[in-house]
Structures are given as C-alpha cells and as structure tokens.
Design goal:
The chain is α/β, with parallel strands linked by helices. It contains ten helices and 14 strands.
Length: 312
C-alpha cells in the first residue's frame, strides 16, 4: 500500500491543536520534531552521544508528521484536513505550513520514522531507544528498546509517558500485570523491566500482538510475558495485581465493568489515553466499580489516573 505524508509546521504553542486535528483521521501515529525535547533531555545529558545537535536547532516552531493511507477515503480526508487547518488559521490568526506528499511507498513510510525517532527519556528513569540507535545508559536508567514498525507510534506520546511514570511509582516486584490494548508492548516491557513477575497483554489487533511479542524479545523479557489476541473477557482467566490500560476514554468506560473482575482486592489500576474533557466519565466509572482514586496526573490535555480496587 502507498501512503500520503502529511507535514504541518506551526508554532509550538499550538501543538495540541494540530495533533487534535490529525487524530480525527485513521492514523497509526504522529512524529513531532520539537527542539524543546532536546533541550529538556540535554539538561540531564551534558555529553550527548547519540543525537546530532544540528537536528535540534532551537526554534519556536515544531514539525508534525503523520501518514494517511492512499485508499478510497483519501480525497475526502485531505479536504477535511485542509478545511480544519483553514479554520484553525482563521480562529487563531496563525499561518500554518501544510505539505502533502502522496508518493510515499510502504518501505519509505517505514523508514521515515527512523529520521526523527531518537533515544528519549520518559519518566524518572526510562530511556526509550529505537533498535537502530546507540545509547550508553547512566546509573539507574532503565532501557526499553522499541521497534515501532509501521503500526504504532514511537512510544513517547503523552499518554504512554504518563503510564510509564505511573508504573515507576508502584512496587512491581513479583507482581502480575495485565496490559489492556498493548499496542507496541512498551508498557508490558516497562513493567517487566521494573520487576514484575509476569505480564499478560491483550490486544484486539493482531499487529499489536505481533509488535508486543517482537519488542518483548528485543528486551529479553519474552519468557515472562503472555500475549493474547482478542477481547479482554475472552482471554484473561485470572486476576492481576496491576492492570494498565492506555486506551481511549469511551472504550475505557465500557471496559471498566470487566476490568474490575480481573483485578485483585487492593490491586492497582492505571488508566490513560484520557482526554481532559472525558476524565470525569472515567472517574465516575471507576467509582461505580468500587475503585478509590489515588492519583490523577496530567500532561498537556491528557490525563492518567491511578486507582485502587477496594473490597467488593
């Protein structure tokens, strides 16, 4: 299949607006080139080994890229995209540079990720590193090697970062963890790297199952993970100490009745993928299912909730 590359250049203060527009479409991930990311990471890394500083010239602008399938809906999708960008420009009186390239082959699409995907620090100690990059770990850093392939993003989206940060706050030693909607498997791998005894991951997308297995092997934790293809209720038969779900809020609300059946008393639930305006729906569903809200964390417009399952 061929792809259409969408590139948007805009001031960094409007990142959420542009990302919100792009997520209206059936996309598999977004790349954001932002000099602020380099500056923040460089504070802790005075001797940068793996990144070329020329790629991160300081700028108030960001470059946002994604890819649309060249299918029957492409023409309509491009019109909607252009209309939404025009509406944004009028509302905020800001000029947006929009580039559209419809000649991207599948192999080129995959390689495009590699240009912008560099080792990135997430949370307190996690380093997310693509397989094609080199990185020297510092003391206490925890490496997650990731090959996102074509089906998933780079593992550094705000919702993923929030989940990894939440996992760092929990004592996972010898715990059983369920990862609902595992995608690339980054949260499963992260939990195992933090000492979890076993992870069971579930994804309804066979690409997610394959990616989770592949990334578990990359990180040499495949002996402690079971990956299921299918629905949560059909595949899980036991109860977990910790359940993590990085999925959209409306899906999470529907699943919480079932999730509550698969978590032990006093077990910890971590939910992300929640846009700010949908958080109360998730909180109400948690309270309804006898969870106690322990912590709510935010990153831009995204919310992550940590909750404890009370006695039934």
């Amino acid at each position: 299949m061929d792809w259409t590359e969408i590139e948007v250049v805009v001031k960094n203060q409007f990142e959420d607006n542009i990302v919100g527009i792009l997520y209206l479409f059936d996309i598999d991930g977004i790349n954001i080139k932002d000099s602020r990311d380099y500056e923040e990471f460089a504070k802790d890394k005075p001797y940068w080994v793996v990144l070329d500083e020329d790629d991160f010239e300081k700028s108030e602008y960001i470059t946002v890229k994604t890819y649309l399938k060249n299918d029957d809906e492409l023409e309509d999708n491009l019109k909607v995209l252009q209309d939404r960008i025009s509406e944004f420009e009028k509302e905020y009186n800001e000029k947006v540079i929009l580039k559209i390239d419809s000649k991207i082959k599948t192999e080129d699409w995959a390689n495009e990720w590699k240009k912008y995907y560099k080792p990135t620090k997430v949370g307190k100690n996690f380093i997310i590193k693509p397989t094609w990059e080199e990185y020297n770990l510092s003391e206490n850093e925890v490496m997650i090697e990731l090959d996102p392939g074509m089906a998933f993003g780079t593992g550094t989206h705000e919702t993923t970062a929030l989940c990894l940060e939440a996992l760092e706050k929990i004592d996972l030693k010898d715990k059983t963890v369920f990862d609902i909607g595992s995608g690339s498997g980054i949260l499963s791998v992260g939990a195992l790297k933090l000492g979890a005894k076993q992870v069971e991951a579930v994804d309804i997308d066979i690409l997610g199952v394959e990616a989770t297995l592949d990334n578990a092997k990359l990180n040499k934790v495949e002996d402690r993970i079971i990956v299921h293809h299918g629905d949560l209720c059909e595949k899980l038969t036991s109860k977990a100490d910790v359940i993590v779900a990085n999925i959209l809020a409306h899906i999470l609300v529907k699943l919480l009745d079932d999730i509550s059946k698969f978590i032990k008393t006093d077990g910890i639930f971590i939910g992300s993928g929640i846009i700010e305006e949908k958080y109360l729906d998730v909180e109400n569903a948690l309270l309804k299912n006898n969870f106690e809200i322990l912590e709510v964390n935010r990153n831009k417009d995204w919310v992550c909730v940590i909750a404890r399952r009370k006695n039934a």
